[in-house]
Every structure is written in C-alpha cells, then in structure tokens.
Amino acid sequence: MRKLVLLGGGYGNMRILLRLLPNNFPEDTTITLVDRTPHHSLKTEFYALAAGTTTDKDVRVDFPEHERLQLVYGEITKIDRDEKAVYLEDGQTIAYDDLVIGLGCEDNYHNVPGAEENTLSIQTIAKSRSTFEELLGLSPGSVVGIVGAGLSGIELASELRESRSDLKIKLFDRSPRILRDFPEKLSNYVKEWFVKNDVDVIANSNITKVEPNKLYNHEDVINVDAVVWTAGVQPVKIVRDMDVQKDRKGRPLVNQYFQLVDDENVSVVGDCASSDLPASAQLAEEQAERIVKVLKHRFKNEPLPEKMPEIKLKGFMGSLGKKQGFVHLADTTVTGRIARLMKSGLLWMYKRQNNG
C-alpha cells in the first residue's frame, strides 16, 4: 500500500482531506493524519476562546472518518527524510511515501528578553484555554497589554473588551496607524472603534523587554497585570530544525508544486511553507488545492503540469466584537454590522463543509 502521511490537522491538511475523501484517491493508498489533538481547531477563532466569548466546542470540528484514513494523536519529535519516516514522542514510527507537513507556527518573540516567559499566547487551542483562564481570572480594573496590532491583536482586544468591560486594555502597535498596509478608511474605522470602546492603542511602539507585570516600550515602563503576545509568528521548532533550504523566516523553501526544492516526496503547506503572501487560513487552503492536484498526478504516475496557477488571495475579514467588523475584498472595504455578518457566515459555511 502507498502511504500518504499528513502532519498537522490545520486548514491546509483539512482541505487536502476534503478533496481526497471519500473516493478521490487510489484503492492501494492509505492516508495517515498526525495531530496532537483529536479534532481540527479553528485557529482563526482562538482570540474569541481566549477572551471568553466563545466556547471550546465552537472552535473545533471533528476530523473526517474513512476506512483508509488513520488518525494518530501524539507529539512529533523527528522527520527523517532519509528513512522516509516520522517519529513520535511515544515511540511510534510512521513510514511514508508522500508526506505533507502542515504543522503551523508558533509565536516569534524576536529575541525580546522575557517575552516568552512572561506573556500569554493564542497560537494553539491549549494555550488559548490557558490565556482564557488567566484573563478571566483578573480582578476588576486590571491592565491587559496586547503586543502586536495585526489581525489577531485587533480581534483579541475588541473581543476582550466585549467580554470584560471592567479591564483596561492597551494594544501596542509598531506602526503609526492600525493596519497601515490597507486603506486609510479601514484604519480609521478600527481606530474609531477602539476610541469609542476605551481601548488604548499605543502607536509606534517598540517592546524591548518584558518582566512580570512590566512592559518596556522604548524608555517607558508600563505596569500590567497580564500580557498577550500577538507580534508575529515563526514555524514550529521541528520544522525550523529540519535540514532543508529555508527563507529568512526559517520556513522551508518550496517549488511551484509546494514540494521541498530537493525532495519531491515532501510537500509543505500553510504557515510553515515559504511564501511571499501573508500567512492565513485562506493561503493554506489555496496551497492545499495545488498539492491535491500534484498528488493526483503522482498517484497516477503522470508528469506534473509545467506551470501551476498563481495563488491570488481574495482579501481578509476581521471582527470587532460580535456586532461589528471589517472586510477587505477585491480593493473594496466593507465595515460595520454587514462585515461582521459576512465573517460569521463564512465561519458557518466552513464548519458545515468540514463536518460533512
């Protein structure tokens, strides 16, 4: 039997499963999915879990079932390309013929002293649960610092404001304005929401050190009761440690088929794959669509297409609590209630599609 092994149950590998199951892969092929948790976690919604406005059950869906799909749960310790095997912490060894690495990312602390030790995270469902417990256990009037005003930071700050109106929230943004790479109309809308809802946005910030209950922004020392880090990501350590060609962010370089440049048996999808496009669930799914096409050719021993279609992202969506949001699609910006409904609708469709 030919063995297709998928590492990580994120957006990319879920799209691969959706396209191959139930009968779009050969009878002589088995699929093994390896993940540390028994469900697909909706990472784009972890901010709401951490803020306490969404339950754990609402940010996950079950993995699909199939007689030739094996689900293996555990922590991966090594990827051995010479032996074509994956090793798990519990001693299991999983052999592969074709491997897709979709292990995602973790926080990038940019060598800021104390950041890793003294901040909370929303990068995994387990860390988001811990962040929820910490934030919701704070006493009234506590100060929460959120470092990083990208989409995750913006959504967390707004959702936490909705969950805990008694907290003082400070959102630290390296840029002169929120979402500086997008239309000013969008930036102004988000900024006005924060002003109206008493979230303190600190622009042009540079966090140089984090100590227990202290944030150092340039020369200022800011007292805080909790800090959540949303200031950038990097591939998980097992991917960073792989002996492959990488880009400056530590992500494995891939060819147009999303294979490692020196290994056609190994593909990389999602946040840990090198790309000029911003990391997102949408990008992971588009990469997965192309990997599926390549796999189908490989299953049939057919030559690969000379040129793969270019990935063009449609845009992005963000929420400001449960009632307001913003959408940027095809150079068009939508804000307010309609934008929030669009995001909620997309999430509903995704869960329905992946729950079969």
From TrEMBL:
One of its GO terms (biological process) is aerobic electron transport chain. Its cofactor is FAD. GO terms for molecular function: NAD(P)H dehydrogenase (quinone) activity. Pfam families: Pyr_redox_2 (PF07992). The keyword Lipid metabolism does not apply. Keywords: FAD, Flavoprotein, Oxidoreductase. Residues 3-288 form the FAD/NAD(P)-binding domain. Belongs to the NADH dehydrogenase family. This is NAD(P)/FAD-dependent oxidoreductase. It comes from Ureibacillus yapensis. The lineage of its organism: Bacteria, Bacillati, Bacillota, Bacilli, Bacillales.
